Fold this protein.
Amino acid sequence: MGRTKGGLHVNRRDFLKGTLGSAAAVVLGTGALPRLAAAAERKYVCKIAHSEAMGSPITESFEEWTKVLNQRSGGRIDAQHFPAGQLGNYTNLIEGSRIGTIQVTAGGPDTEEAVAPEIAVTGLGFIFKDEAHVDKILQGPIGKEMSDIARAKTGVEFVDYAEVGFRHLLAKRKVATREELRGLKIRVPELKVWVDFWKKLGANPTPLPYAEQYSALSTGVIDGLEADYFSIKGFKWYEQAKHMTLTYHWFLPKAVRVNARWLDALPDDLRKLVRDSAKEVFAKQRSVNRAKTGEAFAELKGFGVQAMEPTDKDSWRTVTASIYDEYASKHPIAKPMIDKFNALR
């Protein structure tokens, strides 16, 4: 039944329709707001997991980067740091970064021989001349090219390159010559390029997971290993082996690997934050790592490690030089990358 007020006739049905329609309009008009708010408040979990030693410059830098991501994102990124193999061994973490069970890890491009052999050339012995050569490659167009290849073929982006320094031989017995190296059981990563390198030198390369090296030394499964100063100190391998041969045979760049799908799913501002802050933090990491190398070396000598250079070190390079042609023959796609590395020496 209609009502009249001030000469205006209002039908009850029309009144309800108008009221409900207005309410619906308000709901529809504001319905996007909760969605926008939810998007703004969404947290993006970022598990940063790696196998680097506690207390090393690279681990400290990942800890710093974790804080930077949390703070500068205003909490929108929930970065969590798991160092020293807490979430798995090196191989598991590399695979996890590819498939997205973790978002970030650190690992050498040399792990990618099966799918991206052109970037795995970093694992070839003596391919890096010195730190200046490293910087020309990784901080220039080649470093960007390697990241693009990794993204296309493995599903991770190298947002920057951390480092742990040159690697040396640590053994239970003195090794000053290749003759003394002959037959030595050396732990190596589970990668063919590393196995082939040590075989050419006459050693007995023994592939083992990274985390098993201390026990393998103590039980005699291996006679030695090869690593950087910080890892030898951090994992206390010096307790089991006291002889270090300064070979400088590998400089293993630790690519900061970010799962590409996770990175692409971030809002533009957060994606920029991840990339920019990585370059900021790990530029400092490289500087600190190099500054502390001498300090770490001195500490190892203080722990009783005896260091020496091989008396026939030129022959170490000569006898392994064929690995470049052999690798390029096996992976023709890698030949241009090897040439680029050598051109910058």
Summary: The two ends are 95 Å apart (CA to CA).
